[in-house]
Amino acid sequence: MELKPFPIRYEELNDLYAAVDQSCCLNSVPVPLDEAMTRSFFLAVRTGSNSGEPFRCQAVVLNGTVIGKIELTKHDETTAELDLILRNDYANQGNGTAALEQLIRQIAVDHWCSVIEAYVRGDNEAMKRVLAKNHFVKGRTFQADVVTPVNGSYTLRTVTGEEYVWSASGE
């Protein structure tokens, strides 16, 4: 497994999201993906800026196949928020753990950030295991209102989750 620059096209990104169990995600996106939102995402990938915040996104690649994506969005000089998705048929096989481990090694080398926050649905045990194996510490429990696509429109729902934090200092 390796992390590579995010070279995929709309169709490939759409296929990736179609193959992800979004019921585990805090936020879900409509599939097929909205083309305008997707163009905005690709612009953020190309420029390294997501709505003015530093942004880093890489493809998770196994044997030449894009099996997921991992991204960080910086919120201040030291802290970034993590997002990681994997295709269902590659989940629960150590790929998420390996991808996050590799990302942490990269940011240690280039000092991109020193703290990573991850916000996880309370019932997403697989992601909690990935985070624990990469030395994230469980923080607070939270509730968040999120917009979810449902039958061609959107609905607001409240999800409960847990915050996890990794620090370069190990604290």
Give a quick summary of the entry.
This protein is α+β, with helices and mostly antiparallel strands and 171 residues long.
What would your notes on this structure say?
The chain is an alpha+beta fold. The chain has 4 helices and 8 strands. It has helices at residues 10-18, 35-47, 95-110, 125-133; strands at 2-5, 49-50, 53-62, 65-74, 79-86, 115-121, 137-150, 153-167. Strands 1, 2, 3, 4, 5, 6, 7 and 8 form an 8-stranded mixed sheet that branches. The mean pLDDT is 92.
Give the strand tally: 8
What order do the helices and strands follow?
A: EHHEEEEHEHEE
What's the pLDDT, averaged over the residues?
A: 92
- The best one-word shape is globular
For the report, how would you describe the main beta sheet?
8 strands, mixed
Cα(first) to Cα(last) distance is: 28 Å
Tell me roughly what share of residues is in helical segments.
25-40%
Which ranges are low-confidence, i.e. pLDDT below 50, for 5 or more consecutive residues?
none
Query: How large is the count of helical segments?
Result: 4
Derived structural class: alpha+beta
Binned strand content: 35-45%
Overall radius of gyration: 15 Å
